[in-house]
Amino acid sequence: MAVGIGAEQVTGGQPAPGIAPPGTQRRRQRPLRLPRSPKIIAGLAILAFFALWSVVGPLVRPYSPDQVFANATSPLAPSGAHWLGTTQAQQDVFSQMLVGGGDMLLVSLIAGVIATALSVVIGVSAGYLGGLTDELLSMLANIFLVMPALPLLVILFGFLGKTGSNDLFLVGLIISVTGWGWGARVLRAQTLSLRNRDYVDSARIIGERRSRIIFAEILPNLTPIVASSFLFTVLYAVGTYTAMAFLGLVNPNWSWGGILYYAAGDNAAVSGYWWWYIPPGLAVALLGTALVLLNFGIDEFINPRLRAAGMARRSGAGRRDRNLRSQQFGLTPVIRTVSGTPLDSPPEPQGIATHGGLA
Amino acid sequence: MSRQPLLEISGLCADYGQGPAAVHAVTDASLVLHRGEVLGLAGESGSGKSTLAMAATRLLRPPGVITGGEVRLFGADGSVLDMLEADYAILRVLRWSQISLVLQSAMNALNPVLTIRAQLTDALAAHEPHLSRKQRHARAVELLDLVGISSDRLTSHPHELSGGMRQRVMIAMALALRPQVVIMDEPTTALDVVTQREILEELKDLRDQFGFAILFITHDLSLLIEIADSIAVMYAGRLVERAPANALFRAPRHPYTLGLLSSFPPLHGPRAPISGIPGSPPDLRALPSGCVFHPRCQFAFDRCTVDTPPLSAVGARTDRLAACWLQHGDKPVPAELAATEPAETELAANVSGSHPPEADLYTPALGTEEPVQQGSTA
Amino acid sequence: MRVIARRLFFYLVTAVIAISLDFLIPRLIPGNPVEAILAKMPGQVTPAVIHALDVQFGVNTSASLWTQYVHYWSNVVHGNLGVSVGNGFAPVSTVIRGALPYTLGLIGVATVISFVLGTAIGAIVAWKRGSRLDSLLPVVTFFQAAPYFFLAFLALALFAIKLGWFPSGRAAQIGDFPAFTWTYISDVLDHAVLPGLTIVLASAAGWIVGMRNVMLTTMDEDYVLIAAAKGLAKPRVIWYAARNAILPSVSGFALAIGFIVSGSLLTEIVFSYPGLGSLLVQAVSDDDYALMQGLFLIITFAVLAANLIADFVYVFLDPRTRQEA
Lengths: 359, 378, 325
Fold this sequence. Notes:
Order of helices and strands of chain C: HHHHEEHHHHHHHH
Structural class of chain B: alpha/beta
CATH topology of the largest domain in chain B: Rossmann fold
Shape of chain C: globular
Distance between the termini of chain B: 28 Å
Radius of gyration of chain B: 21 Å
Oligomer: heterotrimer
Number of domains of chain B: 2
Number of strands of chain B: 12
CATH superfamily of the largest domain in chain B: P-loop containing nucleotide triphosphate hydrolases
CATH architecture of the largest domain in chain B: 3-Layer(aba) Sandwich
Largest interface: A-C, 63 and 78 residues
Largest sheet of chain B: 8 strands, mixed
Shape of chain B: globular
Order of helices and strands of chain B: EEEHEEHEHHHHEHEHEEHHHEEHH
Strand content of chain C: under 5%
Number of helices of chain B: 13
Radius of gyration of chain C: 24 Å
Number of helices of chain C: 12
Distance between the termini of chain C: 11 Å
Helix content of chain B: 25-40%
């Protein structure tokens, strides 16, 4: 159930099943190979690691996360028995960390699926149908984008109550309500541009049914965007779920946000119980880093200028590269070779017009 | 038109990138721009003409690098400045006050968030700090007047002006400090033909009025008929021919120039087949051996594939240069490349004031076709 | 100005939707909130309060949904947001009003500083492309990725506890009364530094990277080349480019402000800062529904107002959006 690998498979550019009207020229983007950018690979690797952790964790935990140990008055520091120490209630932090990923992953996947489905339906409809439908749907998406997510989620979960929040599906559903807006906007923009392409126009002129056009021509080309939108939504859901657990809006047992909820409640930071709040926080931060890395990687892929600026540094040592790299704007560097000939050019015959430096 | 040199470029080489993957955009280019002269620099897209101009002024963007040659700027008082050795502070002083720039698309070259007045006066503020605000404003009004734009446009922004007006603003902006040289890179390409003609006329008037030199870069040879005193032709980063304008049109000496000239359809007279030039320009990372043009040249012979011909004088005249082995006496020169030179007096045809009768000006080198009028773009 | 009018209309629609959501949610979710409240604190509630709660949540009333809706609207317009059970049944509006200035001050100032600093740094990193400054980017990435409350924990542990440079919570010393004296104000500032620093660090990263990316593209524009060709001083050339490159950041501000506010509220909680964030967590633990609803409205309105300001700024900065006659 590794999220990272899933994305790779989805971007294979597979055609929508069963829809191949005879005689219609169906143009599809070449299958999008994921670019070999170190950032993207690093991001996916982190995701894969956490997915693995979440699945395997509950199976290898040394103790039950609720199990209370010795009677001590304050949390114990890490030791052989408790690798990450204990909480105020004398529970094993490491076990809590191991099981903390499961619920979170499930909820995030649910939220991701629902939000992505919503954004596809709304975004593509808005982009393809245009007119008043577009205006209304766009406004809807913008409203949910502009409204700050946290207060809305607070009242939604607040009224749902503690019992309601045990239903993971419901939690995922509610989170998805705030997470579909961005994807819808992007998909709408892409649909708009695809709609005006020649092959879609010709399908329309032939008289293909609208639904057919959408499923056969447009959706397959949106696959990469849908995939990356799904990925980002899942990560957004992770962050949001963690915040909800931290606030105590959803059952804190057991997720990393929940561990932080208890830690904050017992003033872990002020009292210096670093083993209690740093592991869960770091875990969420690393997941966030995966998101940011993927973001950067995709940005660089789309805009090669950014890539050049970052890679120029990596491409090697030597004075000549440094000259090139730190080039001042408006002052083209002059880098002559020893004899004055440019690098790698064929030898010049001794003619009348020669350039300075050559005898 | 004095024959005093103003900007002398010798053997300039510029690459994009470094190492084996470098693109040799300009190789061994030599040009001289004289005081008050209009020098046309012609060539296809990718021939390196813009790169040459930007490299000469050290304005080439990364990853551009200058890898060889000399660029010298001659002051009115006789001083000489080595542009490639100069430091940033010196370059700043002479930029715009000695050399200014007009680019192809004014929509991109004018800052969209600033007013026209701000863009006309910022160079003034930087170079002549003693001017007061009112004086700068007065100069801005003057500049707009030069190009026939009303001064109530000073508070407008670029997107509010038409394409032709924006281009005129660019020209006015370039003249703000009365420079010695104005480099114009495809200044009229983005405009419709009618506006193109108007702007060319205005340019000629301004040139007559102020006497600045122009390096006019274009892919459209036919424009150069209108305005150039001399022309240099570039191909794949090398200069292949240099000559006074009239001489180039009537008596080209390089097969590439010949090909370019026979690429315009004549507007008048009987229809003649356009020959064009077969093939396409080479990849600048992997230039052909010997003469860069030989794969497409109808006159190529064995020496052409081995040795690169230098840009050298043809015949007795020093201002007639071509980079072709044919002109070296190795083989007899084909008729198309050996047309008679126009007489000395006719060479001065494009200078201010006197324009020769149309028929004479447009008599082509080939002799078999009707006069070639200013036709469509090359 | 037509642009602003359209945006204003959009914000009004959003506000209406927000108020409607606030009205509908308690009524849609199963359960009787009033009973839940009564169960929590038996014997402390007067019939008048019960009645107020009933009206607030639409319980035990025979009025139609529409009538309740209209009534709710009139309450909101008059500033009546119900009573807060967690604060001795004081009016929600009063409770919020007490905490609002702290939050507005903290988040307002921190956001502005973050934006200005972030875009400036982004422009400079882009300008000096390929230099050592590029190695800042991974560091910046970490700050952008870490959740606000985690950074808050770290800041608290490091600067307040370990180093003792700043106080560890609250807005002022306990026992101090708000007054326009220097001692009080400097005390408030002292307490606001760490939360503010956390917010700035967490949010600046987004601006830095965004500005850098746009700036790199902008630097390739012809007008920047012309600025250099004019021999203008380097800061001015950078300014010409930055002035254009900042536009997407300003329009992106609208989107970002929602996240920044959410993160900032969580930060307030870690620092026990008496702003809306603390009220939020208090409302959750007390099941103080009315307070939750009121907070939702106020925070949403604040974000919409911030968006409107950003729109004004955008129109001011980009002359192409102004429709001249």
